[in-house]
Each structure stands twice: as structure tokens, then as C-alpha cells.
Amino acid sequence: MKSQSRTKMLVAVALLLALLLAGQATADTILPIGGGGDTGRAIGDAGFAYLSGVRTAIAAMLWNRLDPQMHEYYDGVVLEEQTYVLPTISIVIALDPEFEQAYFVAPWIIARRGSVDEAIELARVGTVNVPRSGMLRASYAQMIAVFVKDYARAAEQADIAVDLEWPNLIDQHNWYGILRSIYEKAGRDDMVDSLGLKIDEIDAVLGDQLGADEHDHDGDGKPDH
């Protein structure tokens, strides 16, 4: 029943979007040229703003339908085999170019399938469209390190990621660990030490919220706290 309800909702929203677009097109054909130009532009601007809200709502609904499939139903499927999600992710990005999670998932699937250049470019586009996302910038840095082995370039992206926004302290803690490993490979000892201190500070705040392996910062197999 839930599936049917979601489908009906998507169809209803799609029909609404089509009606709004058709209405705007009709208005454009009947608006007089000249004095009504300013009014026409105002109506057009308002319509575009409203349509933008509809588009982002549809994108969110599509993602909410897709996300449980990736993490539950297809949980045992290796990343490179999850190509079935790419068409939906493409639609989500087309509807909402600032949809953060889509840029986080799709590049890794594409890269694991062998299209590294395409994947890294998509990750880069994500950092442009969602410039305040530390997660996307860190993921972009990690892709450069993993697939291109250009650690100096990856470290440059890490420099930007460190001071950006994070969904929560746990994500920030975990990604700082990845960025720290990039700095190690790039020979950036100053940032290895600096980020190590920041990780320790977050670690102290999170305490028992982290697993034992996440407390092991030096990789010796034993929790450091």
C-alpha cells in the first residue's frame, strides 16, 4: 500500500508540474508586448520560484524512495553493481542540482565501474553546486587520492574540505580521519598533526558514540582513548 501511495503522489506532483508549465506557456503567448513586459517578467519569476520548489520536492521524494533500497534491500550488493540507481540519481540531480547525497553516491558507483574520469568530474561538479559541503569536498579529495594517486592534488582539496560544513560530528570525525590519511600520503606533516588534534577534540566530545575502531587513530589496532 505504501508503494502505491508513493506512486500516486509522484504522479500527482508530476501532473501538477506539467499543468504549471503548460499554464506558464499559455500565459507567455497571451501577454501583450510592451507595457506588460514587467508584469510578465514578475509572473515568470514567481512561477519559476514555485516550480523550483516543486522540482526539489520531487527530487526529495525520489531519493527517499531510493535510499532504503540502497541501504536495506540491496545492502549485500557491491557498490559497482548498484548501477540500477544511476537513472534515478540522474533525475534527482536534474531536478535539484544542489542535492548533496546524489553527488556523494553516484561518482563512486561510476568510478568502480571503470569510468574514473567521468566519476571524478561528477564529484567536482558536486563541489561547485554544493560549495559548503565538507562531505562532498572530502569525497572528491578521496577519489583523487584513490583513483588518480595524485596526493598533492588531493591534499589541496582536503585543505578546502577541513573548514567546510558537516552533517554531524560523527561524519566530521570519520572524514577527518580520511583527510588525515591523504595528508600522510602527500607528506603534509603539518596538517597530519593539526588534523590529529582536531580529531582528538571531536573524539573527546563524542566519547561512547564512536566504536572502538573509530578511537584507533594511529592504526595499531588498539583504541587511543
Architecture overview:
The structure is a single chain. With about 220 residues, the protein is mainly alpha-helical. It has helices at about 1-30, 35-75, 85-95, 100-110, 115-130, 135-150, 150-160, 170-185, 190-205. Helix 2 runs antiparallel to helix 3 (about 85-95) and helix 4 (about 100-110) runs antiparallel to helix 5. The longest helix has about 35 residues, at about 35-75. It is globular, with a radius of gyration of 22 Å.
Could you provide a short overview of the structure?
Helices cover about 75% and strands about 0% of the residues.
Give a quick set of tags describing it.
single chain, 225 residues, mainly alpha, 9 helices, globular
Q: Indicate the structural class.
A: mainly alpha
How many alpha or pi helices? 9
Beta-strand percentage range: under 5%
> Sheet with the most strands?
none
What is the N-to-C order of secondary-structure elements (H for helix, E for strand)?
HHHHHHHHH
- Helix fraction bin: over 70%
The outline comes out as: globular
- What is the total tally of β strands? 0
Task: Report low-confidence residues grouped into runs of 5 or more.
Answer: 19-50, 213-225
What's the layout of helices and strands?
Elements: H1 2-30, H2 37-73, H3 86-95, H4 100-112, H5 116-129, H6 134-148, H7 151-161, H8 169-186, H9 189-206
